[in-house]
Amino acid sequence: MNLSRRQFFHLAAGACAAPAIARHAVAESYPSRPVRLIVGFTPAGGNDIIARLMGQWLTERLGQTFVIENRPGAGTNIAAEAVINSPPDGYTLFITNLSNAINATLYEKLNFDFMRDMLPVAGIAQAPAVFAINASVPARTVSEFIAYAKANPGRINMGSAGIGSTGHLAGELFKMMAGVNLIHVPYRGNAPALTDLIAGQIEVLFPSLGSSIEYVKTGKVHALAVTGATRSDAVPDLPTVAETLPGYQAASFYGIGAPRNTPAEVVEVLNNAVNAGLADPKLKARLNELGNVPLPGPPAAFGKLIADETEKWGKVIKFAGIKPQ
After folding, report:
1. Distance CA 273, CA 96 (A)
2. Which of helix, strand or coil describes residue 93?
3. Is there a single domain that holds both residue 269 and residue 121?
4. pLDDT digits (tens, 9 = 90+) for 261-284
5. pLDDT band at residue 74, thresholds of 50, 70 and 90?
6. Which residue pairs from 27-31 have beta carbons closer than 8 angstroms and sit at least 24 positions apart in sequence?
7. Residues ≥6 apart with Cβ < 8 Å to 59
8. Which residues contact 222 (CB under 8 A, 6 or more apart)?
9. Positive or negative torsion for Cα 185, 181, 156, 149
């Protein structure tokens, strides 16, 4: 068949426009059914709280239910692998967090490469942990605790949400910089660890500020400091650990990830919706109340944060010789 020059360019233009039309159709139709948002920890912890806040916003914003599903175990690896192996269609998402950056070094053999297989979609927030102790511990400042710990080496139990969790690494960094010997007691999430901290079964915990702030405000646990680079607006009277140990910083982060090859149009819809939520006064205020700093931006910026944190905590893991259970 012979085509005129005009016919050829008309057909070529149509061929180029077709993918754009298809991409627009994907963006227009997503989501058309409920979306699962997988959390790698037990309910009531910082990750779960963030997931439910953002899940509610996305449900209202996008008109489909975002169902929160908790799959704890192996420091979020079980949940991460489940999401990575899901169809890349935007209907199974993951609450990405600092544990994922930590696990890249902590676990020598994983069935996935997080940086390669999990697509960064949107950052949600950064948050410090709280340096919390049982009220019976005779210390009311970080300096007093260090002195107490040095006088009682190997006799103080430090809980965490699990080996390789944010709280565990925050505690290990503190041990390294303060020169103290605390016995690590891993739990399956912050909630049971907080219960035992209040009961006196453990003496020290570095829980997320979001999961512990009510206990701090009601005096059920005693907070010595926050672990971020600056003081938190949620608890402005608490100093930072860095005010006693210069250079100390351990801030968690939360965001959304999706399986590799998820359509860029779906990622864009989700990223725009999350960023809109972070600009919403009510949601922003709620995040701030829980000690979180909103983390808006494009997917690439969130991906860079994950890469930087992976490098930082990899050094701590290797120095401390931390191994998974």
Report:
1. 17
2. strand
3. yes
4. 999 999 999 999 999 999 999 999
5. confident
6. 27/265, 27/266, 27/268, 27/269, 30/90, 30/265, 30/266, 30/269, 31/62, 31/63, 31/64, 31/90, 31/91
7. 65, 66
8. 132, 133, 134, 135, 137, 140
9. negative
Average pLDDT over residues 182-189: 92
Concatenating the DSSP letter of every residue in 136-182 gives TSS-SSHHHHHHHHHHSTT--EEEESSTTSHHHHHHHHHHHHHT---
Q: Same domain, yes or no, for 135 and 233?
A: yes
Read off the pLDDT of residues 10-46 as tens digits, 9 standing for 90 and up. 555 555 554 544 445 566 799 999 999 999 988 988 8
Same domain for 146 and 72:
no
* CA angle at 320 for the pair 126 and 115, rounded to the nearest 5°: 45
Domain boundary residue among 243, 278, 306?
243
Burial 161-172 (b: 16+ CB within 10 A, else e): bbbbbbbbbbbb
